[in-house]
Fold this sequence. Notes:
globular; 4-stranded antiparallel beta sheet; 1 helix; 12 strands; mainly beta; CATH 2.40.50.100
Amino acid sequence: MKFIEFEWKGRRIRGAVSRGAGADRSSMWFSVDGEVWKVDDERARGRRSGSAKSHAADPSLITAPMPGKIIKVMQVPGAVVAAGDVVVVMEAMKMEYTLKAQAAGLIEEVTCTVGEQVVLGAALVRLKL
């Protein structure tokens, strides 16, 4: 993971950048102000044959964007969430990252617990869309 710092519209921005691991090597993860984004290199995706669909492309699955520790689980199974609702908060590299629902739905399963160490790509919450 590399840390970045830049100025934008007169504001100092700090964040982190990390390349995916293993079969996800063509992806880049960006974190700024606790928000996390995954960017896929579409050119590399075309070169891979038989690769599985990325969990990040599945709006019904919330996965760990990097290795870290779960510090808050904001929703429970059966809860209704809207797109953008915070579902899990994790800590990595002394920074907090809020993981949000990408689509509206019902929390079907929560597979993480507070205090748990998770690896990159670990499934944390499944939504029923």
